[in-house]
Specification:
The chain is α+β, with helices and mostly antiparallel strands and 380 residues long. It is 51% helix and 15% strand.
């Protein structure tokens, strides 16, 4: 019994530090003007970098953030962590303005709310930058907590030419030709040249940032009577969420997030509770119910994909890559679960020691999420 309570308590506490649908991605636009001036506009969640929601909230209430020593030190660290380079020369960035989110204290402490701060930095290209043979590139240092993925857009203001890339920390962007340089093939393609990035973002949406989807798949693995039945359930779930992901991605099916999110967490409650009471009449319809829940999860995946702002000309590649990453993430969860439990399955104590406490913890966490999401929907 102690082990059961410890497991439930550990997973319950993890809710406070793990975020479902973690889409607080960092957005950065680097604008270059004809006179060589550079502006870097960021939308960034500073929760972790500030040291937690309470400190972040306190910073948001500072009347003049650029004149506050603590806030200014944080913003200077942010500017230092953005490396803009032209050839061998680095372009220093100085903070110009910062607008913290004007939301309640509860929003800063809510793990499902991501207050975004808008920060602008300015810099100047080095002398004789017009003669530079290369382009401007960027890299985000790991010393600062950038929420990933990082959506980076370079913009040449005189030509209204842009290039968008999705990066992770320590990854160097491609060179962006400066104003007046050849612009052929440098439109906002992104996915056309690097479709594998969307595979990574789909995987990232499951591991480590999709705890709700992980718990659903984990519940399927814990409650499956055999590998064959597990494969059937996962296949149905995959087909369902792939269908609604595709339909929602092209705009043929839409449901508000305040409807979809509570339904997703409610599906996790069901899988946990149903694992604890097998053999009921409802159990016969488990494949059909899992398929139906998969339709809901697909709408959640579609919301994540839309937040990545995939270019219209490459949306099919983005959709396929993102979905492939999701499937790889799900298979990873299943493989890890089976590898950890394969030696114990079939033992007399397996159900009482593994299935029951694990399913109870899943149901408990998902119940908390459901209530929280319903309350947020009603407030909205």
């Amino acid at each position: 019994m102690r082990r059961v309570l410890l497991l439930i308590g550990t997973l319950w506490l993890s809710v406070g530090v793990c975020q479902a649908h973690l889409l607080n991605m960092t957005k950065v636009q680097i604008s270059i003007d004809a006179d060589g001036s550079v502006a870097a506009d960021l939308q960034v969640d500073l929760s972790r970098s500030a040291g937690g929601g309470l400190t972040y909230y306190r910073y948001s209430r500072v009347a003049e953030p650029l004149h506050d020593p603590e806030v200014r030190a944080l913003l200077d660290r942010l500017g230092t962590a953005i490396t803009l380079q032209l050839g061998a020369e680095r372009i220093p960035l100085a903070v110009r303005s910062a607008r913290f989110p004007d939301v309640s204290k509860e929003a800063f402490l809510d793990p499902l709310s991501w207050p975004m701060t808008q920060v602008q930095f300015q810099g100047t290209l080095p002398a004789q930058w017009q003669q530079s043979p290369g382009g401007l590139r960027a890299v985000f240092k790991p010393g600062f907590h950038f929420e990933e993925p990082i959506a980076l857009t370079f913009m040449s203001l005189p030509e209204q030419r842009s290039q968008t890339r999705w990066l992770v920390t320590s990854q160097t962007s491609q060179d962006f030709p400066l104003p007046g340089a050849a612009a052929a093939g440098q439109s906002s393609a992104g996915a056309e040249e690097r479709p594998w990035q969307f595979v990574g973002f789909g995987f990232l949406h499951i591991l480590p940032k999709g705890l709700d989807h992980v718990l659903f798949v984990l519940g399927l693995a814990l409650g499956a009577r055999s590998l064959k039945s597990l494969l059937a359930l996962v296949t149905g779930f995959t087909l369902a969420h792939s269908l609604t992901l595709a339909l929602a991605a092209v705009g043929l099916l839409r449901l508000p997030a305040n409807v979809v999110e509570p339904l997703i967490s409610a599906s996790i409650v069901w899988i946990g509770v149903e694992n604890m009471f097998p053999g009921t009449k409802v159990d016969r319809y488990r494949p059909l119910l899992v398929f139906g829940f998969g339709l809901m999860h697909g709408l959640g995946f579609a919301s994540a994909l839309s937040s990545l702002q995939a270019p219209q000309g490459s949306y099919l590649l983005a959709l396929l890559g993102f979905n492939a990453g999701i499937e790889i993430g799900q298979l990873t969860v299943i493989a890890a679960t089976l590898s950890l439990t394969v030696w114990w399955r079939g033992r007399p104590w397996y159900r009482s020691a593994i299935t029951l406490p694990g399913s109870a913890a899943i149901a408990l966490i998902a119940t908390f999420w459901t209530l929280q999401r319903v309350m947020l929907a009603l407030q909205g």
